């Protein structure tokens, strides 16, 4: 089965007073229809920048530099590289073949337009149809995302809805054109725990029905366990571990992943509790002045001078479909630090 | 009391503040330009009249309406043959002085009302701010004209009248600033060590609100110069033979076709002075606002 | 919404009372008070002055006078002109249309141009256009309006002879085209400053909106650039501008007064100056009070408009 999106060697740098600072280094992945890939990392790890770069929502060319490829299928069924497209061509793909939902549903909706108008708008600029027809489609979308009394809600404004309802509206907007790929950037972080679970359930149901690929960005391993098939851990702009949820969550090999997982209260309750990520000492390195060798070594409990701070480790496959980036992973395995 | 409060005052205006502010100000090209222009203008108005060959009041009927740059009258002469350059510089003294002192008076009024309204809030603050609103409901030009027409105009009264109608903006700015400042830790600390309200208001709050006050004061000079020019232009401001930039324009209108320089020269002087103060104000706003460092 | 309106009405009423107090104080500031007009008349004896004072009720305590004056304001008795005995309100009503025509046209022009300049400056922040617009606006705000009017008359009327130098119409013509030609110069002069103000505020309002999450959502939907700009960015940036337009009203009104004096425009500004020349206190006070009430009403209307334009206020 061919992938809905294939990202290869994607790099992003931001312009600063002292030249371009790389924040994402050569990321590659692909997502198949019906599959959910979770992208996990602390804030500042580059996970949101990756998603915004794929959508081309970052500041334009001189301010940011995007390299690599992000190939999706356009309306005619031809592969297109989003990185190479200009704004005009992009607009036929965005919101159509690839859609996105965000962390803050309140600020992500326009306060002065009704919910119905904002959904209809997402359809009417991709498809020629009457206002009445667009409104009918908006109504059915509200129904699909499980909003009670959808006919009434069409003419309400975002601030009149609860956080969970707003996020459902955002999902309705994103799914308006039945995209192949949905990027969800921490869509449940701003919500109550119970509402979180509902939204995750909704996304799973909709994915089952429509068969879209989901790139799910989060810092919460509980949510990962809940929704993802595969997981990709990001640190300082690089993928440091990637594999099936089963592999990575039950036997993480990279010390950073283990640190993140250790900070989740208990896996059994995950999805209900917000993960606390404060237990790894230190901070994400400054992208303008990255440490030599492995980017994680200054914070790593297994740091060995002379190895970790010399050569940046490559991404290696430790078993089928499980890759990681650590100079000492074999030793650590033997030490029993990792099962 | 003094010993206890002294460290707080140091905290209020840290030493690096001045330097960083100055550095940011110097980076603002227009503001630097404005400062240089104002310095030159003041020097010209102070020393210029002594260096010019003609007195500003000397009437010379034979040389009426001399065009600029032609004879030995650098900027030409007016309907009475008086030297425009000499009149311009002497008028500048009056106009700049009126602008400056109107700023001083209105800043004192505005800042006092703003501080009191912001500090006491409650009904006193509400009433004071409604009075500010009421004053702001009148177009300031209307108020100034009525007052100037009612009161015998001399430079001091004109200054007072302009100040009396220009203090509201500063009051508003200061009130907002004080209201947010008064909840801050160092004010609470001052209150805990038993500082009096007056001490807190004028020794702790005002120094911390000084940035916005300076900015508003600079813009008030610009505003006052414009107001003076307008009422003098209409004949209700500075009275001849004392020249001001405004009353030089008063007679210029009727000779517009014959001697346009009589209108153009003082108008340019007003624009130059007002623009310079506006540029300085803008530069000060950027310089005193720490956030502009992020860019 | 009703509570919001009532609240605003209450505040306006308080300010109105304060405005009337200021007006009354100003009135009594005149040398000799409201009687100074008669005091200047030659051959007027003190006895006669006292008689007039009694007739006009000026010998009563100030508080009584104020209450009387204020209640008369309410019932529409704004006094009679010293000049021709006409009712003050009627005189003002006669001059109001000319002022409204000038103000309305120039405000419309400046909002259109100012919005465009402000939005373009914000969209292309720090571009050559933005820098020029910023510096240009600051210079425009520094030019005395009346002087700019004189220069405009000199250039376009005396030199180029394209446009009339003043007044509202040619006697005997008064066609729409004739009005329009007379409008151009004063509107241009008055709009010059207002464009500067409006574009500055519009620029910062747009910058506030441009980085908001919902703009990102609009782009993620795949909307065309113009749609994102107009429907999402400008639509939201205009909200604070409504309040601002209300707050700018005194400035616009003052600007109109200044412009009218230069272009001999037969509006309230002209009337005001003439009345000052004649020490016609009832008319002066009338215009002063009228303009303040106009400003208050304008602010109130702006607040109501914000309520209509912003759904968050409408229900709050």
Automatic annotation (TrEMBL), chain A:
Its EC number is 7.4.2.9. It catalyses: a dipeptide(out) + ATP + H2O = a dipeptide(in) + ADP + phosphate + H(+). It comes from the Bacteria. InterPro entries: AAA+_ATPase, ABC_Ni/Peptide_Import, ABC_transporter-like_ATP-bd, ABC_transporter-like_CS, Oligopep_ABC_C, P-loop_NTPase. GO terms for cellular component: plasma membrane. Pfam families: ABC_tran, oligo_HPY. SUPFAM superfamilies: P-loop containing nucleoside triphosphate hydrolases. The keyword Chaperone does not apply. It is an enzyme of class 7 (translocase). Residues 5-261 form the ABC transporter domain. Belongs to the ABC transporter superfamily. PANTHER family: DIPEPTIDE TRANSPORT ATP-BINDING PROTEIN DPPD (PTHR43297:SF2), OLIGOPEPTIDE TRANSPORT ATP-BINDING PROTEIN APPD (PTHR43297). Part of the ABC transporter DppABCDF involved in the uptake of various di/tripeptides. Is also involved in the uptake of phaseolotoxin, a toxic tripeptide inhibiting the enzyme ornithine carbamoyltransferase. Responsible for energy coupling to the transport system. This is ABC-type dipeptide transporter. It comes from Pseudomonas duriflava. The lineage of its organism: Bacteria, Pseudomonadati, Pseudomonadota, Gammaproteobacteria, Pseudomonadales.
Automatic annotation (TrEMBL), chain B:
CDD domains: TM_PBP2. Its main location: membrane. InterPro entries: BP-dependent_transpt_permease, MetI-like, MetI-like_sf, OppC_N. Gene3D superfamilies: MetI-like. Coiled coil: none annotated. The chain crosses the membrane at residues 30-52, 94-120, 127-150, 156-174, 214-238, 259-280. The keyword tRNA-binding does not apply. GO terms for biological process: transmembrane transport. Residues 92-281 form the ABC transmembrane type-1 domain. Pfam families: BPD_transp_1, OppC_N. Belongs to the binding-protein-dependent transport system permease family. This is Peptide/nickel transport system permease protein. It comes from Pseudomonas duriflava.
Automatic annotation (TrEMBL), chain C:
It is a multi-pass membrane protein. Residues 96-306 form the ABC transmembrane type-1 domain. GO terms for biological process: transmembrane transport. The chain crosses the membrane at residues 12-30, 88-119, 131-156, 176-197, 237-263, 283-306. InterPro entries: BPD_transp_1_N (IPR045621), MetI-like (IPR000515), MetI-like_sf (IPR035906). Pfam families: BPD_transp_1, BPD_transp_1_N. It comes from the Bacteria. PROSITE patterns: ABC_TM1. Keywords: Cell membrane, Membrane, Transmembrane, Transmembrane helix, Transport. GO terms for cellular component: plasma membrane. It is found in: Cell membrane. Belongs to the binding-protein-dependent transport system permease family. This is Peptide/nickel transport system permease protein. It comes from Pseudomonas duriflava.
